[in-house]
## 1
Amino acid sequence: MPPLDLTADDVLTTTRAVRKRLDLNRPVERELIEECLELATQAPTGRNRQRWDFVLVTDPEKRAALADLYRLGLARPRQQVVRDGVNRGDLVRGQRIADSAQYLYDHLHEVPVLLVPCIRVQGRHENGSHVGQANTWGSILPAVWQFMLAARSRGLGTAWTTPHLHYEKEAAELLGIPYETVLQTALIPLAHTIGTDFRPGPRVEAKEIAHWDAW
Ligand SMILES: Cc1cc2nc3c(=O)[nH]c(=O)nc-3n(C[C@H](O)[C@H](O)[C@H](O)COP(=O)(O)O)c2cc1C
């Protein structure tokens, strides 16, 4: 399927966290996912080591088990997300995210593909140095976002989530991931979107976050 007719700037400004508009009834073609992976692997990594692995879960029982771990990790999703919104001074937006997050909470097991992006490490990094951690995260998250942008340009929706990482070990057992040497970094639902029209999201103004020459 050809990518949507979007410019690079369109893709960069309209790749939203998609939850309610994930098409739960339409399978995602493997070729489309492979195209997204090809594009993801053009992302930068420290010393170009490319220690990444992408686990794509389509098996219904495994998706259900993974969704359960997400739900366990996000025991009180509504309160948590509303608080995030309040922190940004936007209660209405916070409530909208909370409703949307609740939908994902309820339907995650129905999303046709659950992606768990991983990175290989010498050992668990929980007590690693700041620089080491920065290199690890910096060597996987750009590729994940690149995957998500590529997905958007192909009519697929994604949303970054992390709560299942509270139960990373259980997820590793479920998926056969070697826990001691492979870190899971997120859980990304992936599906065709219902409609392809998305708008830029509300964000702080760029000029508010720029610090020229000093903080
Ligand atoms: C590190 C991180 C963790 C997130 N965790 C969740 C999550 O657990 N559940 C969820 O539904 N969305 C989650 N999100 C999605 C954010 O809520 C979303 O990116 C943000 O609200 C902006 O949404 P928008 O791009 O649609 O404007 C997460 C995003 C990031 C970057």
## 2
Amino acid sequence: MITSASSLLDLADPTDVDALREALADQDPRRQLTPLGLRRLVVASDASTRVVPELSDLLAARGVQLAGARVVLLVDDVAIQRAGRDLKDDVEAALRAAVGATGAVTRYVVRDEHGDHAVGPLHADETALSAAARAVTGADAVVSVGGGTITDIGKVATSRTGNAPLVVVQTAASVDGFTDDVSVVLASGVKKTIPSRWPDVVLGDLETVAGAPPQMAAAGYGELLSMFTAPADWYLAALTGLDETFHRAPVDLLAVVGRGLAEWSPGVVRGEPEAFEALTRALDVRGIATGVSGGTAVLSGVEHLVSHVLDMHHAALAQPIGLHGAQVGVASVVAAAAWELLFERLAEVGGARAAARLHVDPEAALQRCRDAFGHLDDDGALAAECGRRYELKQAELATRRQRLVAVLERWDEHAEVLRSLVRPSAELREGLRAAGVAATFADLVPSVDAGLARWAVASCHLMRERLVVVDLLDALGWWTPAEVERCLSALEPQEAAL
Ligand SMILES: [Zn+2]
């Protein structure tokens, strides 16, 4: 089930999309991966100045000339500076010169139509998505300039309206959603990931990334850490049969991304250009790993669930939502500690004896979600939605009980693979500290106090149908308040524990 993918590990530059496509094909003889639809990825200090030649090539491949074309420039209302100039103005001017008098460039600003900034900046909700879709209808090409949200909106808007050629100018290194074929949207107050499309070209402009608010890159570093925990959750889900999509190639691609991380990451907060470049490349290649894997599970496990629970809490109370990557970084330490707990307990008890402890109860699922999330709203809608999804997972686990027992009976061989997919919690914790980014729940903005952190970690697996290590710990009776506390204590340096 798990074999080495050497040609991926040998890739000198994983942002060379053509070479990457070939290496992925090599490792995927049965064509299980989603084909990589991204044509070009440029990560360079002057990448945004390449919009015109890249767009021209893209249109030429479709037999369309850029001169005379109708181009929509999709942006939000946040000012973005590049080397002291307005980046959006510069991109618009370059496009106008290129399309000439017979063409047209329309700048469309996606705004938060609710005029309510209490829950943070622009969100990709249905109002924003449909407005953007109307704006790009009939365009020969679309260029988006901005961060993760505007990119996600551009991908959805064009996918709904005939997939016009799409060039993305990436201006921040905070998330990895620029280079994949899905979008994070807000539906009924809850963030979810939906299929959208690959951008044709992504231009990661390092000059702009370096000038973005420092908390963006700090969050980007936190986001990276999920690659040291989530692949193990993904593999566990494959073992139990709840998600059969596990594939070695995206995991090997992540191993390439992880090279040298400890050396360059302290430079992120110091604002070193090499660190911004390494971070932007790493996030962009992670996006590709997500896209080709056919889902988000490769990079989204316990650490993401904890972040989503915090978002749900903040949104329900109309409080500002924290930066996703920063939350993921802190929670990844807890996720790694949950794996350590499982490895330790199963080594003590033995898989076969542990199997006798298995307890899965789909009938209790909804009530457990009501207990965990019922306080968040008046009508219990959030608890009901989570309950529906958690119940599905519990029912699937109950159906596959024999398979789960078989996994536990051969635990030693599975543990070896799983251990190779997760890094020690202490290493992740020290990585956050060395990088100078949020390293505890209290460090997050808004700050998450001990009670809220405890609740988010304890309840994370109740939120969705995705199987994670906490589901297995819980089924084995090893997710009591004491065990949650133990995993949270992994965030404290050892000296402090003495
Ligand atoms: Zn993420």
## 3
Amino acid sequence: MDTETKAQLKATLDGYLETSRHRKTSERYAILDAVCEMTGHFTIEDLGERLLSRNFPVSRATLYNTISLFIKLHIVIRHRLPAGTRYEICDMENNHCHQICNVCGKITEIKSQIVIDAVGAIKLQRFRREGFSLYIYGICSTCMAKNTRSKTLMEQQKNK
Ligand SMILES: [Zn+2]
Ligand SMILES: [Zn+2]
């Protein structure tokens, strides 16, 4: 993430904590730093490990509370996926589609100009567009290969 985006996110947090008279705890800023370092999707556990590796252990309760705050402030978005909850930096310039494997739960991101244009062309009803996220469910190539291998194995055993 570039320093400008990071500064903007920090300013968002500063502004909220000041106006809501919340304490500016070092934990909240350490968690924001860790969030900025994450690439793609992450879990609460990933975030906890990242903080631990920086010698800044944070309790699960604090992590959950802070992430909820970040969601409210549009710093982070939450994906509720079959494989569990994943978080991602909220970047309106980075609208993308997710390919989600129904077998292993792996998520890969793809950009599609067709989808970006189509969503842009949708006439919304009393609603201001901020961004979008699209999920495409299916089977990843690794799982597909495994599937084919086990099928062949079964066939071979049948023919013995
Ligand atoms: Zn898979
Ligand atoms: Zn994503």
